[in-house]
Amino acid sequence: MYLDQPQHHVHELLNETLWPDQPLGRPLTGTGKTLDAMQRAHFLDYLRRNYVTGGTLVVAAGKLQHPEIVRAVTRYAARFTPGKRPTFHAAESNQQKPRLRLFTKRTAQTQLALGIRTCSRHDERRFALRLLNTILGETQVRGSFRKSAKNAGSLIAFIVRLASSMTPATWSFPPASTPTNSRKH
Fold first, then answer.
1. Above 80 in pLDDT, residue 58?
2. pLDDT at 42 over 70
3. How sure is the predictor about 139, in pLDDT bands with cuts at 50, 70 and 90?
4. d(CA 16, CA 21)
5. Contact at 8 Å (CB) between 101 and 13?
6. I need a labelling partner for 59 at 20 to 30 A (CA). Which of 4, 29, 80, 99 fits?
7. Burial classification of residue 81, based on how many CB atoms lie within 10 Å of its CB (0-12 exposed, 13-18 middle, 19 or more buried)
């Protein structure tokens, strides 16, 4: 399970800490409790409420002719349930001071994730934020970090993840090191 993948688990904990008691703070895969409670009727209800004409977009790209696409989509469009796009709960950001979440487990790895709330994905400043994300390297492991970490006996991956589908940008610094090397530094 994903708990055996600390690089994923740390981000679940980060989202839970950034967005407590909100949909953005829930694990994407669900919890043992929510998964055990799922029944076929829940999935069918979700499909009925969310897969509706008001929330459907068809995009085609390539060497295509518009009339061909219209004919192809028209055959299936009648099967879509009429309705408006589903609503969602806007995230609340009432944090007044830094939050810390610590999860300990006997392992040879250490994961650290730092989350910073930024402007909305609809804000004009998002373009500057995206540029900063690119400059910082997005998901690339920087050679200088790798070299200096190798000398220290550990691996450091510098990951910048800009979450464009929600409000926060997340900068992650997941160093993987042995407990022995951690104590040396």
1. yes
2. yes
3. low
4. 8
5. yes
6. 29
7. middle
Residue with tokens 């979440």: 101
DSSP summary character for residue 52? B
Q: How many residues does the chain have?
A: 185
Q: What is the pLDDT of residues 17-34, one digit of tens each?
A: 988 988 888 988 888 899
Per the CB < 8 A criterion, the answer to whether 145 and 176 are in contact is no
Which residues fall within 8 angstroms of residue 182, CB to CB, at 6 or more apart?
110, 154
Q: Taking a C-beta distance cutoff of 8 angstroms, is the pair 176, 123 a contact?
A: no
Using only C-alpha atoms, the chain has a radius of gyration, in whole angstroms, of 22
Pairing of strands 159-162, 168-172: antiparallel
Tokens of 24: 């953005």
Q: What is the pLDDT of residues 80-121, one digit of tens each?
A: 889 998 888 778 878 888 889 988 888 777 787 777 777 777
| Cα pseudo-dihedral 168, 120, 88, 171, rounded to 10 | -10
Q: Is 81 helix (H, G, I), strand (E, B) or coil?
A: strand
3-state SS of 143-174 is HHHHHHHHHHCCEECCEEEECCCCCEEEEECC
Question: Which alpha helices (H) appear in the chain, and where do they start and end?
Answer: 6-18, 32-37, 40-50, 66-77, 126-135, 143-152, 179-184
